[in-house]
Amino acid sequence: MHFEYVISLEQQTAAEAQAAAAQARAEAQVEAQRVREEAQQIRERAQRIPEEIAQRIRIEQSQGPGEGVIVLPPRPPWEQNQIPPQAVDIVTMLIVATVICIVGLPIARALGRWIDRRGLPSPVNADLTAQMNRIEQAVDSMSVEVERISEAQRFQAKLLSDREKVRA
Q1: Other beta carbons less than 10 A from residue 18's beta carbon
Q2: DSSP codes of every residue in the chain
Q3: Is the torsion defined by CA of 49, 52, 57, 59 positive or negative?
Q4: pLDDT tens digits for range 88-121
């Protein structure tokens, strides 16, 4: 007996469709397994992130199995570092200069006054002052007398020179 298998066109396309569906299902299962493994790796990495950063991370699961999206919410304005580092240096120098001026200026003034007081002569007692006044008056009167004497000598020199001119 001779049996011949006859497959109709309709049966062949159904068989091909089933084979294609089985192959697609196998590929989808492999892809799903790969995605699950990646999601597991991401979860493990997320657990190793420091606690401060982990609090900011929110994982939202999508509809499909094993898919996850990591969304970092925006940082609050008080946590955003919007100040350039040069500004911090400038403000620090300004504060230091202000403190130096506030503390240093009174110290410098006190030091200057102390130096000025050291340069002044010590106060003189009353007896010494009276004696200095008498010496000053004596020197003044002597200078007046010396000037009178020098004037008299000039006058005599003039008389002598006039006398010689009259003789000649």
Answers
A1: 10
A2: --------HHHHHHHHHHHHHHHHHHHHHHHHHHHHHHHHHHHHHHHHS-HHHHTT-EEEE-SSTT-EEEE-PPPPGGG---S-HHHHHHHHHHHHHHHHHHHHHHHHHHHHHHHHHHHSPPPPPHHHHHHHHHHHHHHHHHHHHHHHHHHHHHHHHHHHHHHHHHH-
A3: positive
A4: 899 999 999 999 999 999 999 999 998 888 876 6
Provide the terminal-to-terminal Cα distance of the chain, rounded to the nearest Å: 195
Return the residue matching tokens 């990495």: 45
Average pLDDT over residues 30-55: 76
Per the DSSP assignment, residues forming a β-bridge with 61 are 68
Residues present in the chain in total: 168
Q: Look up the pTM and report it.
A: 0.28
